[in-house]
Structures are given as C-alpha cells and as structure tokens.
C-alpha cells in the first residue's frame, strides 16, 4: 500500500482575473454550480437543457436547431466543427493572424483536409481582399475558417464581410467566437455564419470547460451527407444530438454523462447575459475598454492593434523597454492578487494581454489594474 496522502483542502485565493481567460466568474454562477447534482436524464435537467439551448441561441443570435454546449473547452468546440464538417481531401481556406488561426490549420490537417493558409501579420485583422483572392484561386475550396477575436493579439476581424465572401464562393464558414461571444457584436444568422464555437470562460464569465456551438441548416446538411464517418466518437454531432434533442422528436438517450453542475453554471451566466441584454453587454465592454485605454496610454503604454480593429475585451500592450515581463506579472499577482496575461507565440515576452471580459469588464477592475501597473512601472 502507498502511504495515505495527508493533503489539506485546496483553498484558492480570491484573485482578480484580467488575463486572456478564464475571466472573473459571476458570484451567481459559482452559486448555481454548487446546487445539488441531479441525473443528466432527469426530466427537470432535460428541461434546463432546453432553456440552455434557447439562451445559447440568444447569445449567438441564431435560430439554428443544432445548437448546444459541447462538454469540453473551446478547443473541443473547434474540433467539433472541423471533425464533423471536413472530410478527407476537402479544401479549407484558413485565415491565420495569431495562435488560434494556426490551431485551426492543425485541425484541418488532422482530419485529413487540405489547408490553404491566408496569413496576416500578428496584430492585424484578417484581410478580406486576401481571402477573396484565395477563394478565387481555389474554386474547389469548401470552407472558410477564421477567428473572429484573436486572443493572442487582441485583433477583431470583420466576420460579416468574411462570411459574405464565403457565401459568394459557396463555402461553409467556420468561425471561432471563443473570445468574441458576449463582448462584441456577433450576429450569427444575419451574417450567415454556418458553424461557430465559443468558450464559457471569457466574456460569458462562466466556469471554464464548456463550449457553446451552433450549426446552420447548410452546415447540418453537409454533416448529414458525409460519405465518411466522423473520426471522433465523442464529438460526432449526429450522436450527441441524440442526447441534446434532435428534430426527429425522439426521446433523449444517454450519450455521455453531461457535466451537470457546469451546465447549471452556463445556464446562469447566459441568463445574466440575457437579463443585461446583448447590446448593453457590448456597450459595457467598449466603455470599460475606453477607460482602460486612456489610463494605459497615460502610463506610456502602446497597443499592439490599431484602434479600428482593437478588441475591447482583450487589450494587448507592448512591455516598455527595460521592464521585465515576469517580474511585473509576479508582483501584480502577489501584491494585488491581480492576474494579467503574458504574450503568446510571437508576442511572448513582448506584450501583456489585459482582459476585460464579462463580469471583469467593470470600473473596479480597470482602476485596480491601472493603479497596480502604475506602481509596478514607477
Ligand atoms: N480559440 C480562441 C480564440 C481562444 O482564445 C481559445 C482559448 O483561449 C481557444 C480557441 C481554445 O479554448 P480553450 O482554451 O477553452 O480550449
């Protein structure tokens, strides 16, 4: 027998999370998560899932029937889209202007697709002209994939224009909305987005680990006419819908044991978003971003992304010359219980990423961050 490990209960400190996610979780959401666990096929739970579906539809602004929360984080939402839609040999135009566009490319290749990469510099939005040129040069492309809000740089791309281009060239659009959902305008049906995924831990201020996804009727038709089986059993939408409910009206059946309490949390966070109203939430993120921007500018910090395509919820600023990245972040964590994000990929060691997401997009957070940075940089 191994010795009995004597370990105290884990008691995390109360931090202020102003990195790229997870964001500060709403107290109501934490409370919802600790309600009694019931069975994942309990009629009351199934009723809650129906409400959850309509809340996700509201957040995405879609009437898509195939709308649900994948029982895993944003990366699984990404995989759900690629593994269900793309068949071996099919061509996908993938836009890459940061870490997550590159992750999309890797997904395409892993499912046996052919990725045609459209590159933009880190910090720039996806250029619609470049995308159009790639669509013209590749008339056999079946998909256009891009990241709406690139968390690695803080750049917002023009999803409406990109999806219009996809439609004009008869492509199915696959959109990463992990960081955009709830923080900036996103209109799935109006913009003609075909497949979209997000994450619970950013502007929804829910606990991490869930990924809302939605598929348009065009995307569903593509899934239903596949000639090869979906490589992943767990992420196969046709199987998952047996549990989330499909248009056949068939009784729901066991697929996997749903993360019951995490789904209570998502239900609560989306309920809070609906109560606030999407447009109010977008305006709040923008207002707090402007406050933060002014303060950071006064501290002499400069932004990685041009104003026109800057995300309010993810503020990437260059680390001033002579300042040690890790020392400052450690100081903020230890002295202020404040987390800001390090740079990722090409921006590692060069930039900080300051999140203003969901519950975190509020005056107290802006004030704390500015005060802490001012003291650390002086
Ligand atoms: N896509 C984007 C734009 C992200 O920011 C992230 C996470 O930060 C992901 C995908 C992956 O999400 P997760 O870390 O929840 O798997």
Automatic annotation (TrEMBL):
List of residues that carry N6-(pyridoxal phosphate)lysine: 202
Cofactor names: pyridoxal 5'-phosphate
Binding site for substrate: 353
Pfam families cross-referenced by the UniProt entry: Aminotran_5
Domain Aminotransferase class V: 37-343
Coiled coil start-end: none
Record keywords: Aminotransferase, Pyridoxal phosphate, Transferase
GO BP term, pick one: glycine biosynthetic process, by transamination of glyoxylate
GO molecular function: alanine-glyoxylate transaminase activity; L-serine-pyruvate transaminase activity
InterPro entries given in the database record: Aminotrans_V_dom (IPR000192), Aminotrans_V_PyrdxlP_BS (IPR020578), PyrdxlP-dep_Trfase (IPR015424), PyrdxlP-dep_Trfase_major (IPR015421), PyrdxlP-dep_Trfase_small (IPR015422), SP_NH2Trfase/AEP_transaminase (IPR024169)
Annotated PANTHER family: ALANINE--GLYOXYLATE AMINOTRANSFERASE (PTHR21152:SF40), AMINOTRANSFERASE CLASS V (PTHR21152)
Family membership noted in the UniProt record: Belongs to the class-V pyridoxal-phosphate-dependent aminotransferase family.
The name this protein goes by in its record: Alanine--glyoxylate aminotransferase family protein
Organism: Shewanella algicola
């Amino acid at each position: 027998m191994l010795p009995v490990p004597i370990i105290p209960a884990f008691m995390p400190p109360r931090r202020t999370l102003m990195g790229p996610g997870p964001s500060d979780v709403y107290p109501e959401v934490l409370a919802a998560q600790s309600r009694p666990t019931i069975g994942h096929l309990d009629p009351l739970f199934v009723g809650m899932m129906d409400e959850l579906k309509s809340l996700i539809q509201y957040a995405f602004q879609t009437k898509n029937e195939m709308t649900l929360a994948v029982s895993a984080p944003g990366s699984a939402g990404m995989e759900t889209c690629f593994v269900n839609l793309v068949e071996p040999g099919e061509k996908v135009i993938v836009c890459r202007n940061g870490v997550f566009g590159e992750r999309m490319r890797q997904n395409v290749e892993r499912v046996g697709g052919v990725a045609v990469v459209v590159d933009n510099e880190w910090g720039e939005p996806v250029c619609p002209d470049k995308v159009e040129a790639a669509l013209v040069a590749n008339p056999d492309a079946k998909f256009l994939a891009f990241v709406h809000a690139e968390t690695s740089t803080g750049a917002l791309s023009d999803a409406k224009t990109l999806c219009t281009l996809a439609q004009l060239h008869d492509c199915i659009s696959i959109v990463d909305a992990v960081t955009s959902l709830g923080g900036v305008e996103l209109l799935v049906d109006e913009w003609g987005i075909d497949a979209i995924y997000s994450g619970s831990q950013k502007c929804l201020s829910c606990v991490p680990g869930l990924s809302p996804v939605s598929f348009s009727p065009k995307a569903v038709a593509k899934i239903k006419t596949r000639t090869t089986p979906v490589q992943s059993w767990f992420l196969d939408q046709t199987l998952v819908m047996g549990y989330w409910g499909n248009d056949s009206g068939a009784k729901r059946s066991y697929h996997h044991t749903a993360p019951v309490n995490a789904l209570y949390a998502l239900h609560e966070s989306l309920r809070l978003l609906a109560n606030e109203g999407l447009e109010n939430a977008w305006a709040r993120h923008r207002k707090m971003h402007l406050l933060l921007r002014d303060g950071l500018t006064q501290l002499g910090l400069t932004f990685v992304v041009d104003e026109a395509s800057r995300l309010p919820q993810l503020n990437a600023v260059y680390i001033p010359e002579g300042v040690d990245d890790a020392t400052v972040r450690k100081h903020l964590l230890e002295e202020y219980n404040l987390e800001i994000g390090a740079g990722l990929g090409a921006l590692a060691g060069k930039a900080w990423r300051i999140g203003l997401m969901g519950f975190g997009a509020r005056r107290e957070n802006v004030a704390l961050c500015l005060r802490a940075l001012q003291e650390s940089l002086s």
